[in-house]
Amino acid sequence: IQEWTLPIALCGGNIIGQAQNGAGKTAAFSLAMLLAVDSTRQQPQSVCVCPTRELASQNYQVVEKLGKFTGIKLYLAVPQGERVRKVDAQIVVGTPGKLKELLTKRMMEPRSLKCLVLDEADVMIDEDQGMGPQVLQIRSLLPQDLQILLFSATWPEHVEQFAKSIVPKASHIKVQKEDLTLTTITQTYIDVGSDERKKSAQLSDLYGALNVGQSIIFVNTRAGAFNLAKMMKEEGHAVSLICGTQKSGSGPEQIDHAYRD
């Protein structure tokens, strides 16, 4: 996707881009944000909006690495992050709620902004997710003529229509639906029915046959995750169990150290 997006982005064009994870879209919009910055001006000039704190942190790290020798200052705007009275960083990466707070409380000057990036935009602007109004409010507080880059791994039609209202005259760069899976990933489906014992036995056989360095196993219940972790640990595997062990709303999901090796 970099081959198609970078020439347009570096010329100041708006983009609605779709590509699979791992295709390099983060590097593409990170370079666009960096090149939009006038390093002599100590004001926000590029902003990247992400649906989660974790994604914002990841994108921040990519921009930080790519701009390591530029002298460009960055700020991570997420809940429980660094508190500042006034944002003077030239590139700001953050979540919708925090960025809206900075703008409405006049802690970030919007008039100097040149580039707005929405990463995983389908999540943020999907009205069912509840972030659509925040994205619209952020957009309304920014200059009308700034460059907007929207990137996503998927792009349902109803979300695309909403995106068009935010980004007029955008270049649409899309990967066909059948090409969204990376060719470097092998997908295998094994039908073992609903018997949990058969699933566990099949998984045990699979790990016994494959030379696996690291892997992630997703389980649909907390009890199932605990039981599977116990079984695999008994078979000699080093296991870390990550699940929601706290009551709802009391904090983030935790790594259960009883199963961490």
Keywords for this entry:
7-stranded parallel sheet; Rossmann fold; 9 helices; alpha/beta; 261 residues
3D structure, described in words:
- By secondary structure, the chain is an alpha/beta fold.
- It has two domains: 2-177, Rossmann fold, CATH 3.40.50; 196-256, no CATH class.
- The protein has nine helices and nine strands.
- The protein has helices spanning 2-10, 25-35, 53-66, 96-104, 121-125, 132-140, 157-166, 196-209, 222-234, and strands spanning 15-18, 46-49, 74-77, 91-94, 115-119, 147-152, 171-173, 241-243, 254-256.
- The strands form two sheets. It has a seven-stranded parallel sheet. A two-stranded antiparallel ribbon has the order 8-9.
- The model is unreliable at 246-254 (pLDDT under 50).
- GO terms for molecular function: ATP binding; helicase activity; hydrolase activity; nucleic acid binding.
- It holds the Pfam family DEAD.
- This is Helicase ATP-binding domain-containing protein.
Largest sheet, in brief, is:
7 strands, parallel
Low-confidence stretches at least 5 residues in length (pLDDT < 50)? Answer: 246-254
How many structural domains?
A: 2
Helix and strand content put the structural class at: alpha/beta
Helix content: 25-40%
Rg over CA atoms, rounded to whole Å, is 22 Å
Mean pLDDT, rounded to whole units? 83
Q: Which fold does the CATH topology of the largest domain refer to?
A: Rossmann fold
CATH architecture term of the largest domain? 3-Layer(aba) Sandwich
CATH-defined superfamily of the largest domain: P-loop containing nucleotide triphosphate hydrolases
Order of helices and strands: HEHEHEEHEHHEHEHHEE
Number of strands: 9
Domain Helicase ATP-binding: 6-173
InterPro entries: DEAD/DEAH_box_helicase_dom, Helicase_ATP-bd, P-loop_NTPase
GO molecular function: ATP binding; helicase activity; hydrolase activity; nucleic acid binding
Keywords: ATP-binding, Helicase, Hydrolase, Nucleotide-binding
